[in-house]
Every structure is written in C-alpha cells, then in structure tokens.
Design a protein that fits this description.
single chain, 2 domains, two-stranded antiparallel ribbon, 6 strands
Length: about 170
C-alpha cells in the first residue's frame, strides 16, 4: 500500500500515477484544464481588444501635415525571421543561375514585412499609442543558413485630437 501525495489516502501502489490517486489526478487535470481555458479566453479577449484599436497609423516620416504629435511614448520594434526550405532554396539557387525575378524570395520578404508591421502596430497600441512615426526597416541574413530577419522600428506616439469640423 502507498499514500496519495495529495489527499493522503492509502491506495495500492499500482493505483498511483505521479504519486496521486485516481481521484486527485482527475481533479488536478480538471483544474489545469480550467486554468488553460481561462488563459486562452483572456488571450482571445486581449487580442480582440487590440484588434478593435488596431487602426494605429504607421508613418515613415516624423510628422504629417494634418497630424500633430501630442506625446512621444518610446521606441517600438518588431522582428520576423524566416527561412527557406531546402526545396525553396533549390528554386532560388536555380533562379540565381539563370537570372530573373525570384517570386519565392519576394513573397517571403513581403510576408515577413507585413507580419513585422502588424506586430509593430500591436506593440504600439499596447503602449497606448495612436501612431508610429519614423518607421524604418532593416534586413539581415542570419549565419550561413537560409534565414533572414526583417526588423522594423519606430517611435510610438499619441496624436492630438483633430479639431471638430465647424458647421456651415
């Protein structure tokens, strides 16, 4: 006979799993399942709230003629790293030999840039920003593998509210 480490009940050694009796193990798994479900629900709510506010402007300039920066919050950045599979790498290598446009690489860079901008926008919104100004991209090859990083940075800002339009 052995004791359950959770409730202390005496059970057969063969009825213990991880030191717990069947009932305690079931209760623990239900509690863990509820905690996971709660965390997933909270993450979905957070993502929905951010998506509602996901209209943050992204500008490559520091200012625009119709937007006035009220407060600079700070630098925000996002990165995306992508790699080419062996098959895609062969296609790119073949294209290098014959010359011409590599749609495989173009698509990979476009996807990485778009994802990095989306992440930059979300990070700025989480800080309470209305816009990101001075957006700049950096691209870098990582090691000797077929991995490339796309990084995007900018300054998260809040904008002054637009003046109300006067009635005619």
């Amino acid at each position: 006979m052995a004791n359950c480490k959770t409730c202390g009940e005496k059970v057969s050694f063969f009825d213990l799993t991880g030191g717990e009796c069947w009932e305690c193990g079931q209760r623990r798994m239900q509690d863990e399942g509820r905690a996971i479900a709660e965390a997933e629900r909270a993450e979905r709510e957070r993502a929905a709230a951010i998506q509602e506010r996901a209209s943050a402007l992204l500008l490559t300039t520091e200012a625009a003629h119709n937007l006035t920066v009220q407060r600079r919050i700070g630098i925000v950045s996002a990165e995306r790293i992508f790699g080419l599979s062996a098959f895609k790498d062969l296609l790119v290598s073949a294209r290098d030999l014959v010359g011409g446009k590599s749609t495989t690489l173009e698509r990979a860079f476009q996807d990485a840039r778009r994802e990095a901008l989306d992440e930059l926008r979300l990070r700025a919104i989480e800080l309470g920003a209305d816009a990101v100004v001075g957006v700049a991209f950096t691209h870098a090859e990582i090691g000797t593998s077929a991995m490339v990083m796309v990084a995007v940075t900018g300054t998260a800002v809040t904008l002054e509210p637009a003046p109300a339009a006067s009635a005619p």
